[in-house]
Design a protein that fits this description.
With 142 residues, the protein is an alpha/beta fold. The protein has a single domain, classed as SPOUT methyltransferase, trefoil knot domain (Alpha/beta knot, 3-Layer(aba) Sandwich). It contains five helices and five strands. α1 runs parallel beside α5 (116-135) and α3 crosses α5 (116-135). The chain is globular.
């Protein structure tokens, strides 16, 4: 299974991009993921539509889960032999009601309102954490 993080806008802060790169590198052999930039929400959906599989929209109204639950979601998709899972991160105004209705799942990273650039870093780290949970790596400490 391959994951895709599709984020509206460019991650301009070098430090944040480097953090994402580091988690992406760590995941390379565990649970690989790609990161893509999109100019707007429509372009994000256009890319996601090219990837057969579930689409998860990050939204403050989304389900609040813990790291083991995210790992369980991923394990379930692996068990169903999903080839791809796309995670969509919107711009400053987020996604529309129609976008949320279109998603297979809505994921809320926090009840706090996060800048979309922080959401990307947090999602990269949580994918790595989920991958370590799935493989029994000691990174995650409950």
């Amino acid at each position: 299974m391959r994951l895709a993080i599709i984020a509206v806008g460019k991650l301009k802060e070098r430090g944040l991009a480097e953090l994402c790169d580091e988690y992406q590198k760590r995941c390379r052999t565990l649970l690989p993921f790609d990161r893509f930039e999109a100019k707007d929400e429509a372009a994000a959906w256009e890319r996601a539509d090219k990837l057969p599989g579930p689409t998860v929209v990050l939204d403050e109204r989304g389900e609040q889960i813990d790291s083991p639950t995210l790992a369980a979601w991923l394990r379930g998709w692996q068990a169903r032999a999903e080839r791809n899972v796309a995670f969509l991160i919107g711009g400053a105004d987020g996604f529309s009601d129609g976008d949320r209705d279109r998603a297979d799942r809505l994921l809320g990273l926090s009840r706090l309102t996060l800048p979309h650039r922080f959401a990307q870093v947090l999602l990269c780290e949580q994918i790595y954490r989920a991958a370590t949970l799935l493989t029994g790596h000691p990174y995650h400490r409950a």
